[in-house]
Amino acid sequence: MGLEGRIKATEGSESAASKANVDQLIQQAVFGKEQQPTANLDGSAAFTATSNTRADNCKVDTDGKGATSVAATIICLCATTTTHLTASPCFYTVDGPTEWNGQKDGAQAQWSAIKKFCGLQTDRQEPTAELIETLLDETLSNLQVTEASKAHLGAYLATGCSGTSSAGVCVEYTITASDPKPTLDKTPWLTKLRAASRQLKQAEQRAEATARLTTALQSEIIAAMNAAAEAAAYTAQVQPLKQSKSQDSQKEVEVDCHKHHGNNTTCPKDKYTYDEKEKKCNPIKQAEETTEKAGGKDGKNESKCSEAKTEDECKKVEGKIPEGKKAVCGWIEGKCQDSSFLLNRKFALMVSALAALFF
């Protein structure tokens, strides 16, 4: 496959790495379902435990139920409860959110109050695979393996994450202590963000490959154009020398020939012909006759081709067949023309199109 085909194959390989699909995965990870950041948080999507208690909604068991979204995790880490551990777990304010005991229908009020303290962003940073992985690593590095099968994110004291002063304001994860990563990676918001990261990485790799191939194709086009320019310059230099040499040779022939004017006996018949009427020894126009037999006084086939009036006659014209063609002439644009005309024209159009594409 040529460079152009490889570029098309690379660009056409959209698959699951489209921007829209990555956006959907990130929305599902953050909110529990696809929605815009300005929409109200759906508590039933953000929290998936069967009960409405904080202890159940602020943990992720082996079945993946509980605080299955980023928003749910933040609420579990920052919301106060009626028997609170601290009045302000995540921030200091006299006007904090109302107390929350794990009710899904109260998630929107908590989210609306808490997200105001996440900081003002004047520009939205486009997600990249590296950015997502960095944020995940920073978050998971704060996990504490507190028991053989439990890890906690946040302020943990003992016995779950109910938000009470005797327990903790946290999220509890069921893990295998010897190898916690596989069980942690089953957490829905982690799974979604990992998938988004992989797809972004694939898209970034395709973009890099396309850029490399495009640069290589540009280099090939430039090299071809330079070669054509060098060939044209060489022809322009050599042609006058050939013509000059031909003219000098012709003069030498004429000088030698004129020695035999008036003497038919000494006029060499292999190179000259004697004109009895003019009593002159003249050069034989062998080169011109050979050229005309090949198809045209200039070594081309235009004269013979133009004489054909139909496509059938055009196919039957005899002469020198141009390299890469099957016939002397071709029926081109409604008339019989030299086959090399179409070949040269196609090459010129191809170079022009490629140059316009990249320059």
Automatic annotation (TrEMBL):
Q: Where in the cell is it found?
A: Cell membrane
**UniProt KW keywords:** Cell membrane, Coiled coil, Glycoprotein, GPI-anchor, Lipoprotein, Membrane, Signal
Q: GO cellular component annotations, sorted alphabetically?
A: plasma membrane; side of membrane
The record describes its membrane topology as: Lipid-anchor; GPI-anchor
Pfam families membership: Trypan_glycop_C, VSG_B
Which intervals hold domain Trypanosome variant surface glycoprotein C-terminal?
Answer: 257-357
The cross-references to InterPro entries, in alphabetical order and at most eight, read: Trypano_VSG_B_N_dom, Variant_surf_glycoprt_trypan_C
**Coiled coil (residue ranges):** 190-220
Trypanosome variant surface glycoprotein B-type N-terminal domain sequence ranges: 6-218
The entry's function note states: VSG forms a coat on the surface of the parasite. The trypanosome evades the immune response of the host by expressing a series of antigenically distinct VSGs from an estimated 1000 VSG genes.
Give the protein's recorded name: Variant surface glycoprotein 1125.3116
What's the source species for this entry?
Trypanosoma brucei
